[in-house]
Amino acid sequence: MVNILSNTNSVINHFIAELRDTEIQKDSMRFRRNLERLGTLFAYEVSKELKYENREVVTSLGIANVPVLAEYPVLATILRAGLPFHQGFLNIFDKSENAFISVYRKMHKDHSFTMQLEYASIPDIEGKVLILCDTMIATGSSVVMSYKNLLTYGKPSQSHIVSVLASLEGLDYLKKHLPQQDMTIWLGALDDELTAQSFVVPGLGDAGDLAYGRKG
Question: 34, 143, 184, 205: which has the highest count of C-beta atoms within 10 A?
C-alpha cells in the first residue's frame, strides 16, 4: 500500500513547500524544524494503522476506558538527513526503541556510484512494528539496503517506510525489492523526474547539507 499525503490538502503541503523554497532553505534551523514538524505529522498518520488496547484510566471523578497503543514501534532512520525527521516521530512515539543506519553514495571516476553501508545501531525488531524514515527517496537503493540490514535483527510484524519526497523511479524500485505483505509506504509528495546523477526533480536539494551544512 502506498499513501501519498500531498494528494489531500493539509498543512503537510505547506511544510513541504517551505522545504523546497530556496529562500527559506537559507535558514538551516527552520529547515530542520520543518522536517521535525513533518515527522510529527507523519507519525500521527501512521499511528492510525497501529494496534490499540483499552485501558482503564482513573480520573479525579471516575474511571475512563481509553484506547492506547498496544506497543510502541521501533523507529529507524538513515543518517544524517533523517535525524530531524526522526525526531518528529520520536516526539509522538516517545517510548520507542531506535535504530540508526549510515548509508552513503560512494562515487566512482566514471561518475557512477554504489551504495555503502558504514554503520548500524539496531535493537531487536523481531515481531515488532518497524518505521523506517528517510527524508528523500531518489533511486530507492539506500532504503532497500537499510531495510535488508534491519532484517538481520529480526522480522517485524509490520513495516512502514516513510519519506517526505520520493521519485517515481525510486518508488518503483521499492515496490520491486521490498516485501508486499505487511508493508506500507508513506510519502509526502511524489516527483516524476530523476536526473542522470540520481537527483530528484524538482526535489529540494541535498537535505543533509541544508540541515547541517555542506560536507567536506
Answer: 143
